[in-house]
Design goal:
binds iron/sulfur cluster, alpha/beta, single chain
Length: 385
């Protein structure tokens, strides 16, 4: 019954959105013709919609609604700002030679402002931004990529001919946005820019605006998590359920470790001791060569990358913890375990894997210790409801 009500209310919301005028997405082509041009059939599209429905933790019967939301992305004005960053988040989404449905959806969105994609530059670009903010006041989604040099150091990011700072751009654009997504770890938590000693005083987006910010971290985040957030917004029009770090729980509710394909080896105490050894060939757990999967909340182990083909752990390197706050300072060195080192990250200053690091002494004791360590970690750090 609850599900029926939810279905009905989402359906009504999408019905209203259908009446909104189409914005100028991708030469006014429909999404189906855009997909067709790239050899993607309706059947593939519906399969993709079913996958997105499951990812958003919605029942399978909601698939037609998710497909509909994707078709309505051309009603959603998006302003994408670049701050201090490598542009890897944009690259991960848009620059594949065989575009995925996710990247084509993003082509289809009415991207009102995106410095690396739009033709305008200099004063024209500035004007475009001002114009988009005014025209779509209270209606656009703001996506910000990059850490933001702030306060006295804000001049490190000086933008455009008016010499405005990135900080003031971000503040202004946030003021009139309907929803704000921090795309990538830089914008969510400061990222590499904010790594010690943080010479530009780079800050996460939520530190420079008092509006609610949904963090979509990862370095870069997967295109699925970015597009999934857009679909969620189209479907619900509200904030998703968030964890302690304002990450949507549908994507960041579980740890890499919880769904990892090497997890059986962790529990059995079977570890790669060094890259290229017998354990590596057998696909053993990468904890001892630095995997930070037990401390990292993200869905990489389930969704993977590059059209679901692979992800770092499958390719043989441990997770580096890129979707956690301060990961550059707290998760390194990337190829050694955290061991009993004290750190002030997700586990609040505990050397929480001291026990886990001793796993592997003997298979029998290891299995027991592994499970106990896992249980301890789960108790120590459960994301806030
Ligand atoms: S989060 Fe990573 S990929 Fe994205 S802009 Fe920052 S450094 Fe680049
Ligand atoms: S430690 Fe890493 S490789 Fe091992 S099971 Fe956990 S996430 Fe997978």
């Amino acid at each position: 019954m609850e599900q029926d009500k939810l279905y009905q209310s989402l359906n009504e919301r999408l019905g209203k959105l259908t009446n909104f005028p189409k914005l100028i997405g991708s030469d006014n082509k429909s999404i189906s013709s855009l997909l067709e041009e790239h050899g993607i059939s309706r059947r593939d599209f519906m399969k993709w919609a079913a996958g997105m429905t499951a990812m958003l933790s919605l029942p399978a019967t909601f698939t037609p609604l998710v497909a509909k939301a994707a078709e309505l992305t051309d009603r959603l004005p998006v302003i994408w700002l670049h701050m201090a960053e490598c542009t890897g988040c944009s690259e991960s989404l848009l620059r594949s030679d065989a575009p995925t449905i996710d990247s084509l959806i993003f082509d289809y969105i009415s991207l009102e402002y995106h410095e690396t994609l739009m033709a305008a530059c200099g004063w024209q670009a500035e004007e475009n931004l001002e114009h988009a903010i005014k025209k779509y006041k209270g209606k656009y989604v703001l996506m910000v990529e990059g850490g933001i040099p702030a306060g006295k150091s804000s001049y490190f990011l000086t933008v455009g001919p008016q010499g405005q700072t990135g900080e003031s751009h971000a503040k202004e654009a946030a003021e009139s946005a309907a929803a704000i997504f921090a795309i990538g770890t830089c914008s969510s938590f400061g990222g590499v820019q904010a790594a010690y000693p943080n010479p530009t005083n780079a800050q996460p987006l939520h530190k420079v605006t008092d509006k609610p910010v949904i963090n979509v971290p990862g370095c870069p985040p997967s295109e699925k998590n970015i597009v999934g957030q857009v679909l969620h917004y189209l479907l619900f029009g509200t904030l998703p359920s968030l964890d302690a770090y304002n990450r949507p729980k549908w994507a960041y509710g579980l740890r890499i470790h919880d769904l990892c394909e090497r997890r059986g080896h962790f529990d059995a105490g079977e570890f790669v001791q060094e890259f290229g050894d017998e354990g590596a060939k057998k696909g053993y757990c990468l904890y001892k060569v630095g995997c930070k999967g037990p401390y990292t909340f993200n869905n990489c182990s389930r969704e993977k990358f590059n059209q679901h083909t692979s992800w770092p752990v499958q390719a043989g390197h441990g997770c580096i913890g890129c979707s956690e706050p301060d990961f550059w300072d707290k998760m390194g060195p990337f190829e050694s375990p955290l061991a009993d080192r004290l750190y002030h990250s997700v586990f609040g200053g505990l050397g929480a894997d001291a026990t886990a690091d001793k796993i592997g002494v003997t298979v029998l004791s290891a299995a027991a210790i592994g499970i106990a360590a896992h249980a301890a970690i789960t108790i120590v750090k459960k994301p806030k409801e």
